[in-house]
Structures are given as C-alpha cells and as structure tokens.
From TrEMBL, chains A, B:
Active site residues according to the UniProt entry: D7, E68, D141
Residues reported to bind Mg(2+) 1: D7, D141
Annotated keywords: Cytoplasm, DNA damage, DNA recombination, DNA repair, DNA-binding, Endonuclease, Hydrolase, Magnesium, Metal-binding, Nuclease
Protein origin, superkingdom: Bacteria
Cofactor note: Binds 2 Mg(2+) ion per subunit.
Encoding gene (name): ruvC
Subunit structure, as described in the record: Homodimer which binds Holliday junction (HJ) DNA. The HJ becomes 2-fold symmetrical on binding to RuvC with unstacked arms; it has a different conformation from HJ DNA in complex with RuvA. In the full resolvosome a probable DNA-RuvA(4)-RuvB(12)-RuvC(2) complex forms which resolves the HJ.
Purpose of the protein: The RuvA-RuvB-RuvC complex processes Holliday junction (HJ) DNA during genetic recombination and DNA repair. Endonuclease that resolves HJ intermediates. Cleaves cruciform DNA by making single-stranded nicks across the HJ at symmetrical positions within the homologous arms, yielding a 5'-phosphate and a 3'-hydroxyl group; requires a central core of homology in the junction. The consensus cleavage sequence is 5'-(A/T)TT(C/G)-3'. Cleavage occurs on the 3'-side of the TT dinucleotide at the point of strand exchange.
One Gene Ontology term of the molecular function aspect: magnesium ion binding
Family statement drawn from the similarity comment of this UniProt entry: Belongs to the RuvC family.
Official protein name in the record: Crossover junction endodeoxyribonuclease RuvC
GO cellular component term of the entry, any: cytoplasm
C-alpha cells in the first residue's frame, strides 16, 4: 500500500510518501514541503498548494491520501489556512478517484509513539526509526506528513474490516459469520 | 463590472452574478445554488463544488469573484465546511486569473441594507429591490450570494483607489499628488 501523507498548511504543507503493509518494515519513497509565500494573495496560495500536491500525486501515484483532520478549537488565524489547504489536498485526491482518509493529530501520535500526547521531537524520532532514516526529516511538517502516512498504513486493516462489516450489514448479510480476521 | 458572488457552503453554496457599476441600476445575470449530498465523502463533495463553480465561471465569465470571508468564531462544525468550500471557490477563480475579494457578512449587510446587523429577510428584501426582481431569491444562500456581488460592485471603487495608492507608495511616487478621485 502506497500512501501520501499531507500535513496541511498554507505557509508549509508537509508531504511524505510511505509504502508498506502493517507488520512489515516500511519504506519512505519521498518527503518534502510545499511552500507558498505569506504575502501572496490567498487565491494564488491555494493555486500553489494545488500545483504542489498535483506534482506529488503525479510522481508517486499513491493509492491512498491521508490528511490531518483539522479542528477549529485551535488558533483561529491558522486554522482557516489549514482548513483551506486541506480542502485543496482532498480535492486533488478525490478528483483522481484516490480515497482520502482523515486522521486526528492524536491518532497519528498514538500510532507512531504509543501516546496521543507525544511531542514533535518524539514523533520525529519514531518516524526516523520506523523508516530507518539517517536523521529526522525537517521541518516538523515533513515528519508529520510521514507519520500520517504510517498511521494510515497501520490503521487501514481495522478500518477496512469496519467498512466491510458496514457494507455487509447494509446489504442485509449476516455481518458476524463472514468477518475475516486480519 | 461583472461579479460572481459566492456564499460558500458544502450543503448549499449560493452563487449569483450581478453586472453594473456603483451609482447605476444593477442587473442580475443569474442566481442559483450548488448543492452536494450530506452523506457523500468530503473529497467528493469538494469535487462537486468545484464542478459547480466551474460551470458558473464558464457560463458567465465574471471579471471578479466575491466570496464571503469565513470566521471560525461561529459554529465549529459548519465553519470547517464553509472554509473548505470557500477555498475551492477561491482556487477556481485564481486558477483562471480572476481577482478574488473577500467581504465579511457585516460588510455585505451594511452595503445592501445600511446596517451591519440586518437579518436575512432584510437582506433578501433589499437584494430584490436593488436588482428589480419579482420576488426574493430562495434559498437565503442564493440571496446572500447576490448581496456579496452587489457589495463588491459598490465597494470596489474605494478598494481600487486604495490599491492604487499602495502601489504608488510602493513605487516611491508621491501618493498625494497623483490620486485620482472617482
């Protein structure tokens, strides 16, 4: 499974591609940051994010895109830019028919460190270890994007089983007898 | 000046096209709502908003797009969808090189009713009168989109003078002697 993780932002949008399956060593295929100038017009910044995401999709052809779920409880100013950048990332993926998954920051932290309240350094250290990198990816947005992709790969089997169960239930089939254990 | 007003939203995105200049009777060229199903995936809904906005841009070729400025103080759930839909509208316009302007809800209300705290009915009544319509556009999102376009046409001269002054100042020219009164 090849996943593009996106840590959305207007000034710095982290992007990272990870390939692998749960329970096996993972491979990083690419990591980077899409930047847009803070003094550019908002519309132009969104166009620049779109172009950046499109380049990553073109180059790596991911099967899934995992985007950080944005909450509006946080800083009022930054959250709007984050929501707008995440909308562009989701739009780019959905236009190509690539499934988009949203994961909360605490889900991502819990997936890679075991604690939903881990700090940036801890996430960076675990991403470095799990992907067998020489050094933590910089800036933190890039490391967070890789963590999102890892989180998606590890959570995907459970999510897929859940989706299968829901689909079976919706189709009127007995959902208990056909469950496959992964 | 032909302006597409966009009242952003995922479930209902109001769109309205108004042509005219400040101080002259205005003409409505079109009004409607881009709808997306609430049970569809977020990415698919954003793609549907994009397709809807593109159709309006194709059909009416506006020179400006006016979008409601989103604040995150309001309802936490709806504000994210509003921010995401507005990002798509801004993206569509900016991709075509169409200037995007943001106006706050109170700027729009003040422009068309004289009061920044006017209610929906008052905005609808004034839009109906100013565009000489037979009845208020329904739903309210459609009327709000027209109000945004009207607001932009009426505020534009002042904004253009401000932009000219800033540009002159940035170029080092004396900004007072060259100001043109509109």
């Amino acid at each position: 499974m090849r996943v593009l993780g996106v840590d959305p932002g207007l000034t710095r949008c982290g992007v990272g591609v990870v390939e692998g399956v749960a329970g096996r060593p993972l491979t990083m295929l690419g990591v980077g940051v899409v930047r847009t100038p803070a003094d550019a017009e908002l519309g132009q910044r969104l166009v620049a994010v779109e172009q950046g995401i499109e380049q990553w999709l073109d180059e790596h052809r991911p099967e899934f895109v995992a985007v950080e779920r944005v909450f509006s409880q946080h800083n009022v100013r930054t959250v709007m830019g984050t929501a707008q950048a995440s909308a562009v990332a989701m739009l780019c993926a959905a236009r190509r028919g690539i499934p988009v998954a949203l994961h909360t920051p605490s889900e991502v932290k819990a997936a890679v460190t075991g604690s939903g309240r881990a700090d940036k350094a801890q996430v960076g250290a675990m991403v470095t270890r799990l992907l067998r990198l020489a050094a933590p990816p910089k800036p933190a947005d890039a490391a967070d994007a890789l963590a999102l992709a890892i989180c998606h790969i590890w959570r995907a089997p459970a999510q897929n089983r859940l989706q299968q169960a829901v689909a079976l239930h919706a189709a009127g089939a007995p959902s208990t007898s056909k469950g496959r254990r992964g």
